[in-house]
Amino acid sequence: MNLDTPITHIMVTDLLTVETGNALSDVHRVLAKERFHHVPVLENDKLVGIISQADLLRYGLADEEPSSRLDPRTRIADIMRTDLVTVSDRATVAEAAQRLSAGGFHSLPVVDEHGRLHGLVTSTDLIEFLLETPIERPLSADLEQRLEQLERVFKAAKLYPHSGLAASEHARLERAIEAVR
User: Exposed/middle/buried for 19, CB within 10 Å: 0-12, 13-18, 19+?
Assistant: First the structure.
């Protein structure tokens, strides 16, 4: 397993982004239809925030059609998270894993030295990498147990976007990740 693999090898680059001035309903429609859970927010081509399905849950906007509760004047900038933890486009898988293991979030925007977004890496991306990378020596019992825990996290992460039960599946994913720590 090569944890020195550049993050650019596993990050997602086909991203849907929004601008700070977009309506929140635009992001809601995208997150409701697509398989991902995080939308980077840009301003003048620089990353300034991120909005996730968890953010929508906090505002009670997670159901399929929240238009009756959504003020059309509400903008992404009103609820996006700006306390971002990012990773450099020169980082390794190990660096990204270390940042994600700090908890509280499930994605890392990958940016260059000018703050321009190049990609996004999620806990699911890291787990897939770890599960697909061959291990070159026999596993200890502890490592075997950790891999089984990671497999449970991976299964929970795969189920999450397709479940239609975002809140309960999100909680299951968080419990599985916490068990790995």
Answer: middle
Closest-CA residue to 82 (of 41, 116, 112): 41
Asked if 166 and 57 count as a contact pair (C-beta separation under 8 A), the reply is yes
Mean pLDDT by 10 residues, the chain (181 residues): 85 90 79 80 92 78 58 78 93 90 85 93 88 67 76 69 60 66 54
Tell me which residue of 109, 81, 115 sits closest to 96, measured CA to CA: 109
The domain that contains 163 carries what CATH number? 3.10.580.10
Rounded-to-integer distance, Cα 119 and Cα 18, Å: 14
Structure tokens at 125: 């991306």
The reply to whether 152 falls in a domain is yes
**Residue 41 placed within a domain:** yes
By residue count, the chain amounts to: 181
**Total domains in the fold of the chain:** 1
In which element (H, E) is residue 41 found? strand 38-43
Helix 93-100, helix 123-132: angle, nearest 10: 130
Q: Are 119 and 13 spatial neighbours (Cβ–Cβ below 8 Å)?
A: yes
Q: Is residue 47 part of a domain?
A: yes
d(CA 123, CA 73): 33
